[in-house]
From TrEMBL, chain A:
GO molecular function list: transmembrane transporter activity
Swiss-Prot/TrEMBL keywords: Cell membrane, Membrane, Transmembrane, Transmembrane helix
Membrane association type: Multi-pass membrane protein
Highest rank taxon of the organism: Bacteria
A Pfam cross-reference name: BPD_transp_2
Annotated protein name in UniProt: Monosaccharide ABC transporter membrane protein, CUT2 family
One Gene Ontology term, aspect cellular component: plasma membrane
Presence of the UniProt keyword Transmembrane helix in the record: yes
TM region(s), chain numbering: 27-47, 53-74, 81-100, 106-128, 135-159, 179-202, 233-254, 260-280, 287-307, 313-330
Subcellular location: Cell membrane
UniProt xrefs under InterPro entries: ABC_transp_permease (IPR001851)
TrEMBL record, chain B:
Gene3D superfamilies documented for this protein: P-loop containing nucleotide triphosphate hydrolases
Organism: Primorskyibacter flagellatus
Name this polypeptide is given: Monosaccharide ABC transporter ATP-binding protein, CUT2 family
Molecular functions (GO terms): ATP binding; ATP hydrolysis activity
Domain ABC transporter: 5-241, 247-497
Topology versus the membrane: Peripheral membrane protein
Record localization: Cell inner membrane; Cell membrane
A GO cellular component annotation in the UniProt record: plasma membrane
Length: 337, 508
C-alpha cells in the first residue's frame, strides 16, 4: 500500500484513528459502566461472581442486538419504533417454518433474517419513497407487525420442541465447549459478532458512510448525485436483518415464539443507543457506544436486583439514567464548542 | 463563436409563480459570466435548471452545441457542470475528504471503502487549490471560509468545465475573497467557464467578463463588464434609477446617552469593550468575520453570559442576564439569522408581529384578541410598507426584505429605546435595502438609539453617524461617520491585530 504518499501531515495508525474517532462520545458511558460495576461489587459480594457476570451478558444479548440495529437508523437521522414487534414477527415466522412446516434449522435461521430484512426494507420504502416521517412510518410498522404476529400464530405461542438444537442458538456455549472455564452463552457470542460486523460496516463501507452522511445533511448527499432513497432503504433493511437475529435469540432463549411479546423492547433499545452517546438528530454515533449503553442498562437492572431493590424502582432508575446520560453528553458538547 | 453552454427560451413555473420567462444565457470557455438580479429575479432557478436540480418547462439547452436535458445533478455532472450552492451544503460530521468525494468513494470489494485512496485523492485536489488542509479534518471544526473552500474542492473534483458559484463570498472576509478570486483566475486560465452569482457590485467589476441581468424572471440584457458602469447595471436590475445621495447626519453629540457599555469581556471573543450610543444616533459596527461584533450584541442582549463589564441604560446600571431582562430594559436585538432566530416562518404576518408582545393581546383567561392583533398588524404593514397580500399571509412566502420588516415591526411593538440590528440587509436585494436604510434612519429620527452590525463596508458608511471597529474581540477605534472616513481607515482598524497594538503602545 502506498498510503504514505499523501500530503497528510499528521500520520497516525489506522487503529489509533478508529479508537480516536468519536472516543469522547463513549468515554462517559464507559466510565459510568465501570463506576456502576465497582459500586455494585462494593455494595454486594454476590455481584462480582462469574455466574452473575454471565447472567448480565445473557440479559444484554437481545437488547444489545436490537440496539445495534436501531443505531444504524438513528445515525441516519431516523428512528425505528418497530424493532420490538419486528423481532417477535421474525420469531413467529421462524416458528411457522420450523414447527409448522418442519423445515431444517438452517432454513429457520435464514427465514428470520430474511423476514427482518424484508420488513425493514418496507419501513425504509415508507420513509424514503413515500416521505413518511420515520417516527410515523415505523409506528405504523410496529402495529402492523404486532397484529400480523398474533394473526399468523393464532395468538398462541409456537414451541420449538420438534427442532433439536434450536435452544442451543442462545443457551448453548461454543466457547464453553472449547474452554470449560469460560461458559459464555452463544447468545452473548452472537451479540459481539453482530456488533463487530455492524461496526465494520458502519465505519468501513459505503453503506456506513452514507448512514453518517444522510444524518449529517441529507439534501447535500442527494445533490451530490447519490441515490439517497436506495441507500436509505438498504440501511433500514440491514437494521431489519439484525432484528431478525434478535428474533432468533429471544425465540431460542424462550424455546418458543411468543406473539404477544415485543412491545417495549424498541424503547429499551433506543434508550441503550442514547445512553451510548449516539445523537438522536443523526450524523453521530457508534455501535460500541450502544453496546455499552445496553450493558449499563443490564448492569443496573441486575445490580439493583442483587441489592433487593424492588423492580418498580429499577424502572425509575433507568429512566433517570437516560435523562442524566443525555444531559451529561450535552454539557460535554457545549464545553467542547 | 462556440459556447460551452447555451440556454434559450427557458421557461419555469412553480405553483402560482412564473419563475422564468423565456430566459437566455450563454457561457464561453474561460470566462466569468456574472448573473445579476434582485432576489426572486430567477438567478438561482436558472442555475438549478442548468445543473439538473430542476427540470425546465420549456426552452432549449446546449452543451458544446449538442441539445441536452440534464434531469439530475448526476446527469449535469456527467456533462461537466458543477455547482457550488448558496447555502453551504456540507456534511458537518464527516471529514473534508469524505465530503469532497461523497458518492464517488474509492471502493474495494464488498462495498468496503478505501480510506487511504480517498484521502490521497482529496489531498491532490487540495494541493491543486493550494489549500493547506488535512483531508481528515472534520468539517464542523473549520471556519465558514475554509468550509467554502472544501465546497469548491468538492465541485472541482468532478473536473467540471462549467462551474456555477451561487453567492460564494457571502460569508467571506476581504482576504478570503482575494484567495477565492485567485482560484477563479486559475480556473479561467484552464478554460473553465464560470457562472458567478453575487449581490456585491464591487466584485462584478473585479472578476466578471460579461454580465447578464434578470428581473422578475425575465431576461433583460447581457453587457460587457469592463465598459458598463455599475450604475447602469443596477439600473437594469431594479428597472429604475437608484439614487445614492450623500447621507446627511444629524448632530446627536448633545443628546442623552441611551446605552453605555463599560469594559465588557467574555473569554477571547470580547475583550474590554466600552462604548456608548446616544438617543437618535446610529452607531455602526464594522470588522471582519469573527471580530466579536455579534458576540458583543449577544452579551448586551443577555443571550450569552459575560465575564466582566457593566451595562447602563439611560444612565442607570442594569443587570441583564437573560434576553427577557434586556427587553424589559428596552433593548431589542434583531439577529443576523432571521429564519432561525427572528421569525416563525410558517406562521402568519399577524402572528409574528404579535409574537413578542402577547400580553398586549390576551385577556385574563389567556384568550387571544385576534381583532386587536389584526389592528396592530395592519398598522405596521402600512407604516413599514410591508408588501404582503394580507396580514394572514405566511411569512415564509414574503421576500427577504419584507421578512426583515416583519422582524422590525415585531420589535417596534415592544417599544425598545435601543435596537441592535445584526446584518439587517443580509440576503436582501438592492431595492429593499434602501427601504430598510430609510426605516433605520426614521427610527433614529424618532429618538431611538440604533446599533447596526454589518460586514458590508458601504452599508456601515452609508448609515452610521459613528463607526465602531472591532478586531479579534477588541474595539480598535471609533471613527466619525460621513465623507471624512474612508474604507481604508476602517480596514486599518479592522486588521489591527494585537501584536501591532502592543508595538503602538510601546512607542507612545
Amino acid at each position: 500500500m502506498t498510503s504514505t504518499t499523501t500530503t497528510v501531515n499528521t500520520p497516525r495508525s489506522t487503529l489509533a484513528r478508529i479508537i480516536a474517532a468519536g472516543t469522547h462520545q463513549r468515554v462517559l458511558a464507559f466510565a459510568s459502566l465501570i463506576v456502576l460495576l465497582i459500586g455494585f461489587s462494593i455494595a454486594s459480594p454476590n455481584f462480582m461472581q462469574a455466574s452473575n457476570m454471565i447472567a448480565i451478558l445473557q440479559a444484554t444479548s437481545v437488547n444489545g442486538v436490537l440496539a445495534v440495529a436501531v443505531t444504524l437508523v438513528i445515525i441516519t437521522g431516523g428512528i425505528d419504533l418497530s424493532v420490538g414487534t419486528m423481532m417477535t414477527f421474525c420469531a413467529v415466522i421462524t416458528g411457522v417454518v420450523l414447527t409448522y412446516a418442519g423445515m431444517p434449522l438452517l432454513l429457520g435461521v435464514v427465514a428470520a433474517i430474511a423476514t427482518g430484512a424484508l420488513a425493514g426494507s418496507l419501513s425504509g420504502t415508507f420513509v424514503a419513497k413515500m416521505k413518511i416521517p420515520p417516527f410515523i412510518a415505523t409506528l405504523g410498522m410496529m402495529l402492523i407487525l404486532k397484529g400480523l404476529s398474533l394473526v399468523i400464530s393464532g395468538t398462541r405461542p409456537i414451541y420449538f420442541n420438534d427442532t433439536p438444537g434450536f435452544s442451543e442458538i442462545s443457551r448453548g456455549s461454543l466457547i464453553g465447549n472449547l474452554i470449560p472455564a469460560l461458559p459464555i452463552p452463544n447468545g452473548v457470542l452472537i451479540l459481539f459478532i453482530v456488533a463487530a460486523l455492524t461496526a465494520y460496516i458502519l465505519n468501513r463501507t459505503v453503506l456506513g458512510r452514507y448512514c453518517f452522511a444522510l444524518g449529517s445533511n441529507e439534501e447535500s448527499v442527494r445533490l451530490s448525485g447519490v441515490n439517497t432513497d436506495r441507500w436509505k432503504i438498504a440501511i433500514y433493511a440491514l437494521a431489519g436483518a439484525i432484528v431478525g437475529i434478535a428474533g432468533l435469540l429471544i425465540a431460542s432463549r424462550l424455546n418458543s415464539a411468543q406473539p404477544a411479546l415485543g412491545l417495549g423492547y424498541e424503547l429499551e433499545a433506543i434508550a441503550a443507543v442514547v445512553i451510548g452517546g449516539t445523537s438522536l438528530s443523526g450524523g453521530r454515533g457508534s455501535i460500541l457506544g450502544s453496546l455499552i449503553g445496553a450493558l449499563i442498562m443490564a448492569v443496573l437492572t441486575n445490580g439493583l436486583r442483587v441489592l433487593s431493590v424492588a423492580q418498580e424502582w429499577q424502572t425509575v432508575v433507568t429512566g433517570a439514567i437516560i435523562i442524566l446520560a443525555v444531559y451529561a453528553d450535552m454539557m460535554r458538547r457545549k464545553k467542547s464548542n | 463563436m462556440s459556447y460551452l453552454v447555451e440556454m434559450k427560451g427557458i421557461e419555469k413555473r412553480f405553483p402560482g409563480v412564473h419563475a422564468l420567462k423565456s430566459v437566455q444565457f450563454s457561457l464561453k470557455p474561460g470566462e466569468v459570466h456574472a448573473l445579476m438580479g434582485e432576489n426572486g429575479a430567477g438567478k438561482s432557478t436558472l442555475m438549478k435548471i442548468m445543473s439538473g436540480i430542476y427540470a425546465r418547462d420549456g426552452g432549449e439547452m446546449f452543451v458544446d452545441g449538442n441539445p441536452v436535458t440534464p434531469d439530475s445533478p448526476r446527469a449535469a455532472q456527467d456533462l461537466g457542470i458543477g455547482i457550488i450552492h448558496q447555502e453551504l451544503s456540507l456534511m458537518n460530521d464527516l471529514t473534508a475528504a469524505q465530503n469532497v468525494l461523497i458518492g464517488r468513494e474509492p471502493r474495494r470489494s464488498f462495498g468496503r471503502l478505501d480510506e487511504a485512496a480517498l484521502n490521497k485523492k482529496t489531498a491532490e485536489i487540495f494541493a491543486s487549490l493550494q489549500l493547506a488542509m488535512d483531508p481528515r479534518t472534520q468539517v464542523s471544526t473549520q471556519t465558514i471560509a475554509r468550509q467554502q473552500l472544501i465546497e469548491i474542492a468538492k465541485a472541482l473534483s468532478y473536473n467540471p468545465r462549467v462551474l456555477i458559484m451561487d453567492e460564494p463570498t457571502a460569508a467571506l472576509n476581504d482576504a478570503e475573497i482575494a484567495e477565492l478570486f485567485k482560484v477563479i483566475e486559475r480556473l479561467k486560465a484552464d478554460g473553465v467557464g464560470i457562472v458567478y452569482i453575487s449581490h456585491r457590485m464591487d466584485e462584478i467589476k473585479r472578476i466578471a467578463d460579461r454580465v447578464t441581468i434578470l428581473r422578475d424572471g425575465a431576461y433583460i440584457d447581457t453587457v460587457d463588464a469592463a465598459d458598463t458602469p455599475l450604475s447602469k447595471i443596477i439600473q437594469l436590475m431594479v428597472g429604475r434609477e437608484v439614487t445614492q445621495n450623500a447621507p446627511v447626519f444629524p448632530d446627536t453629540s448633545q443628546s442623552p446617552v441611551a446605552l453605555e457599555v463599560r469594559n465588557l469581556s467574555r473569554g477571547k471573543d470580547v475583550r474590554d469593550v466600552s462604548f456608548d450610543v446616544r438617543k437618535g444616533e446610529i452607531l455602526g459596527f464594522a470588522g471582519l468575520m469573527g471580530a466579536g461584533r455579534t458576540e458583543v450584541a449577544r452579551i448586551i442582549f443577555g443571550a450569552d453570559p459575560r465575564d466582566a463589564g457593566e451595562i447602563l441604560v439611560g444612565g442607570q446600571p442594569v443587570n441583564i442576564r437573560t434576553p427577557h431582562a434586556a427587553v424589559d430594559a428596552g433593548i431589542g436585538y434583531l439577529s443576523e439569522d432571521r429564519k432561525h432566530f427572528g421569525l416563525a416562518v410558517d406562521m402568519t404576518v399577524r402572528a409574528n408581529i404579535a409574537m413578542a408582545n402577547m400580553d398586549q393581546f390576551t385577556n385574563r383567561a389567556g384568550v387571544l384578541d385576534e381583532a386587536a392583533m389584526k389592528r396592530i398588524a395592519v398598522k405596521y404593514i402600512e407604516r413599514l410598507g410591508i408588501r404582503t397580500p394580507s396580514d394572514m399571509q405566511d411569512v415564509r412566502l414574503l421576500s427577504g426584505g419584507n421578512q426583515q420588516k416583519v422582524v422590525i415591526a415585531k420589535w417596534l411593538l415592544r417599544d425598545c429605546d435601543v435596537l441592535i440590528f445584526d446584518e439587517p440587509t443580509r440576503g436582501i436585494d438592492v431595492g429593499a435595502k434602501s427601504e430598510i436604510y430609510a426605516l433605520l434612519e426614521d427610527l433614529a429620527a424618532q429618538g431611538r438609539a440604533i446599533i447596526v452590525i454589518s460586514s458590508e463596508l458601504p452599508e456601515v458608511m452609508r448609515l452610521s453617524h459613528r463607526i465602531a471597529v472591532m478586531c479579534e474581540g477588541r474595539l480598535t477605534g471609533i471613527l466619525p461617520g460621513g465623507a471624512n472616513t474612508t474604507q481604508e481607515d476602517i480596514m486599518e482598524l479592522a486588521t489591527q491585530r494585537e501584536s501591532a497594538l502592543v508595538g503602538a503602545e510601546e512607542t507612545r
